[in-house]
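User: Can you recover a sequence for this backbone? Please restate the input before giving your answer.

Assistant: Of course. Working from this structure:
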């Protein structure tokens, strides 16, 4: 790689990152920005120490946030945020440990670290399930494709009859689900009317000239709200609800053991009816997706696959064009006027060294949002499953397009054709392509890390929105915190791709490793700050992300070993190439061991653990309390009591109580 290209990219990225991080450290000190930079602490009612006095220290950059982030321990993260967040943070630490020692022991040490990490998270998952034994999902089973009862013209009676017959000692109750689309629209409409009434009421108190007209408008709106309340009560009546039943129910059991047996067993000789599974925790449920018939889900998957394929094909165009910009000789051949950049000193280094990685990051920025929308279409019943699906789609998209296509785009068709015609030469083609693209991936790591993580912590879009809102229509009103959950699907795939790039280039271009270590260190500090002050936890899967992260790292190890075979082959060292093959066999054997030893615990709830937790609850006298919580937890949102808080409105009393 030309030194001036790397210097240009490094200088620009480091300079921009230092400016953004300095700006962030200043903005974080301002009390008016607390809803942006401390929303999690505000939501938890934690005291925030911000000096409201006008002092020069408030406007000086500092590294206080880095110092605070470095003091956070894994135990604190696990206790405050859960195992999912800890797994997310340990991905950065794993990458650091591997790449700090990979110059000597990349393959064997990587496998050792991966095994150690897997075992530790496996043990933490078991402990976390024990610590969260009060959660209602441990007593609850999700049942789909319930047969229709022709006698009673409903689904609910079938649920009660089936489970009381087959699980007489452990079955407790059920909550049938309903098609609540019309009801949800009415509730939203009622809420909007209430907000308009509150706004007009406040306006009439402050402006006496419009008080009479506002009072008449309020009366009209109250009549409209009364009408909405009447419609809601009518739909929530038992007769109307029975006509809107869905073949889906949450079934509650008296013990975790009974729920685990029912959730992990085939209930009928026909596997397409009475389909049971462990229920997601209540805050994790995507209620609208439960209305999608189970038999339609394969069609949804096919549609998502086709859309993802189209996005992949479309993305090949800008990636190929970006590689043309990165190679100035090709750029001159395709676009002769580009020779003009040589007339300005230093411009060629910026165009070929910095610009391609910026353009690539710009295009792939939209990929996670596209994939999460596709995952929503797939019909997953929980936010966690939807996010994990999007995480997988984004990672393999990045590996296919941002990595392989960037490697092969210089002579794409010839390389692919030769690889298919002579499969045994694939490691050599891969090694040659990897060596040729070392400079591009160095600039990619710099841009994605320094620029990307800096923007993540600054949140410029949210800052501008809050500034405009505070100085226009929301002036003088109480500010609310901007609460968001950790975007796993947007961060994990990019970090995993960077670890993959680092492993593949560990031998070919060791100069990339310091940049990658800096990337992981900055990411670690940034996201410790974010999970402490910004992001809230919307669900807890007890480490379900780890088996997928493990697959990403394993893919990186396998690609690295295949590249090693090709590199030694290009160096005319066949004995070294052959000696690398046992590493591949060891990796595949290690994967088979992990699949049998650890993976089942992440997808099933063992009878031993369920029985043990039941006995502990009985000893502590909290079994009945936990069971009651489970009975109340899975009431659909559209059937929960509402209060529109409008004086003299019929809606101030609960419209209906859940079953």
């Amino acid at each position: 790689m030309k030194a001036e290209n790397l210097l240009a990219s490094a200088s620009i990225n480091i300079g921009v990152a230092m400016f953004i991080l300095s700006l962030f450290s200043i903005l974080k000190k301002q009390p008016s920005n607390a809803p942006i930079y401390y929303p999690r602490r505000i939501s938890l009612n934690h005291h925030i120490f911000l000096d409201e006095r006008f002092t020069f220290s408030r406007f000086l950059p500092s590294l206080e946030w880095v110092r605070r982030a470095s003091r956070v321990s894994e135990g604190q993260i696990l206790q405050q945020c859960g195992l999912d967040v800890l797994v997310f943070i340990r991905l950065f630490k794993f990458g650091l440990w591997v790449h700090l020692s990979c110059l000597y022991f990349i393959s064997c040490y990587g496998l050792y670290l991966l095994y150690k990490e897997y075992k530790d998270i496996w043990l933490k998952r078991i402990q976390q399930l024990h610590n969260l034994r009060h959660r209602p999902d441990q007593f609850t089973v999700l049942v789909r494709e319930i047969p229709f009862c022709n006698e009673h013209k409903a689904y609910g009676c079938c649920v009660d009859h089936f489970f009381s017959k087959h699980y007489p000692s452990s079955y407790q109750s059920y909550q049938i689900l309903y098609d609540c689309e019309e009801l949800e629209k009415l509730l939203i409409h009622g809420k909007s009317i209430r907000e308009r009434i509150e706004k007009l009421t406040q306006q009439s108190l402050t402006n006496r000239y419009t008080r009479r007209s506002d009072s008449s408008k309020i009366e009209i709106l109250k009549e409209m709200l009364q009408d909405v309340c009447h419609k809601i009560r009518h739909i929530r009546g038992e007769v109307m609800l029975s006509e809107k039943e869905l073949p889906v129910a949450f079934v509650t059991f008296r013990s975790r053991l009974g729920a685990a047996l029912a959730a992990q067993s085939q209930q009928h000789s026909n596997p397409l009816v009475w389909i049971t599974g462990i229920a997601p925790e209540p805050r994790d449920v995507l209620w609208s997706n439960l209305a999608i018939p189970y038999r339609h889900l394969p069609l949804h998957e096919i549609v998502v696959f086709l859309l993802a394929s189209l996005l992949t094909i479309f993305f090949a165009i800008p990636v190929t064009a970006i590689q043309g910009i990165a190679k100035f000789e090709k750029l001159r051949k395709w676009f002769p006027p580009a020779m003009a950049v040589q007339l300005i000193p230093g411009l060629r280094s910026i165009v070929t060294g910095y610009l391609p990685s910026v353009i690539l990051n710009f295009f792939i920025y939209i990929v996670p949002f596209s994939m999460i929308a596709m995952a929503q279409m797939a019909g997953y019943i929980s936010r966690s499953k939807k996010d994990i699906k999007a995480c997988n789609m984004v990672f393999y998209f990045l590996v296919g397009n941002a990595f392989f296509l960037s490697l092969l785009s210089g002579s794409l068709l010839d390389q692919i054709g030769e690889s298919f015609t002579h499969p045994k030469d694939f490691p050599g083609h891969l090694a040659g392509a990897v060596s040729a693209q070392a400079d591009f991936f160095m600039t990619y790591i710099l841009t994605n890390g320094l620029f990307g993580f800096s923007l993540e912590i600054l949140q410029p879009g949210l800052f501008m929105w809050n500034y405009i809102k505070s100085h226009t229509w929301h002036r003088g009103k109480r500010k609310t915190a901007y609460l968001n959950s950790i975007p796993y699907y947007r961060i994990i795939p990019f970090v995993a791709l960077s670890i993959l790039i680092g492993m593949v280039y560990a031998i070919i271009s060791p100069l990339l490793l310091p940049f990658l270590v800096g990337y992981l260190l900055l990411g670690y500090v940034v996201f410790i700050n974010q999970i402490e002050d910004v992001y809230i936890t919307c669900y807890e899967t007890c480490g379900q992300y780890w088996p997928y992260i493990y697959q990403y790292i394993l893919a990186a190890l396998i690609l690295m070993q295949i590249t090693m075979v090709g590199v030694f082959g290009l160096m005319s060292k066949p004995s070294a190439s052959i000696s690398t093959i046992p590493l591949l066999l060891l990796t595949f054997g290690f994967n088979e061991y992990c699949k049998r030893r650890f993976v089942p615990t992440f997808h099933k709830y063992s009878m031993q653990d369920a029985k043990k937790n039941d006995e502990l609850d009985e000893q502590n006298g909290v079994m009945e309390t936990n069971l009651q919580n489970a009975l109340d937890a899975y009431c659909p949102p559209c059937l929960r009591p509402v209060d529109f808080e409008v004086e003299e409105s019929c809606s101030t009393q609960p419209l209906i109580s859940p079953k």
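That completes the design. Residues 83-131 form the longest helix (49 residues).
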